[in-house]
């Protein structure tokens, strides 16, 4: 997201030259290459989600919605094709609840369709709506989170407000603005002296390769740190607050986010530093109460741990860093219990990380 084009930035869109093609940014190649990738079939959408061309709960959901649109275009038996696509999409990433939410929302919308042309029209409209709504949700999160940064800034007399974040919960994880980064962008635009400590976020380095790239493009002061430096910075008073995103939030306030988030929450708690989680309401799983027991934790390919992607002598490449016979465990997420979360930043406001707190903002889900 470039600062002079912030309002117009999108992470997924329908090709202006061909309405049968959906386009995305291939995030696997950032920050060394900026490459637009074409999705021509729903199978391309499944691959983009599972192989992390796209990532971040809101963008995963939007990609799934657009994939169902693509399924409606190339089907002899439209309903059968869409059902097959939906099943494959639901299996592509198990942790992010937005995926199921988006698929079920589109399928529900299509139940009223009569004929293939209307199916395609409705699928496209719903995918567009999901994207447009996500931008406004991120904007709401940014507005409410900004107030937290402003309150700290008022006490620091011009000194920088130091925010630590983990993984990428920025524009690249949503359609625009991001969740954890939206308050930061809005604070920066307002002239607040804000500085971001960016966890590299092993093993895929979404912090160093995505968050740092975003912040640099928008002129936001930031410093990259190794994942394990956060606690040290907190002990020495160099972190004012932590803001992370989440891929799934229980109705009781537990949050599943990129592996390592739980450790940041523990360090913040020990050092009495506020730990906030920014989330769109679409990531709340109202059917889930106990995050540790109930949220499925994705285990990914060992190569994400053993190999590093980067540039050497002007060429991008993957380099293995371990012995070939080293056993690897690669859990993609962990769960931070609600007791360690200072508050949840949503599009409707900031609330306690609890069932009562969430229902105060979203009372329509009391019977969910």
Notes on the protein architecture:
This protein has helices at residues 42-50, 57-73, 78-90, 97-110, 116-156, 182-189, 206-217, 230-235, 261-270, 291-294, 303-306, 355-361; strands at residues 12-14, 22-25, 36-39, 161-165, 194-199, 222-225, 241-244, 248-250, 255-258, 275-278, 284-285, 307-312, 315-320, 333-336, 343-346, 349-351. The chain is an alpha/beta fold and 368 residues long. The chain folds into 2 domains: 3-133, translation initiation factor eif-2b, domain 1 (Four Helix Bundle (Hemerythrin (Met), subunit A), Up-down Bundle); 148-365, Rossmann fold (3-Layer(aba) Sandwich), CATH 3.40.50.10470. The strands form 4 sheets. The chain has a 7-stranded mixed sheet, sandwiched between helices. Strands 11-8-9-14 form a 4-stranded mixed sheet, with helices on one face. Strands 1-2-3 form a 3-stranded antiparallel sheet. Helix 6 (182-189) links the parallel strand 4 (161-165) and strand 5. The longest helix has 41 residues, at 116-156. The chain is globular. The model has no long low-confidence stretch (mean pLDDT 94).
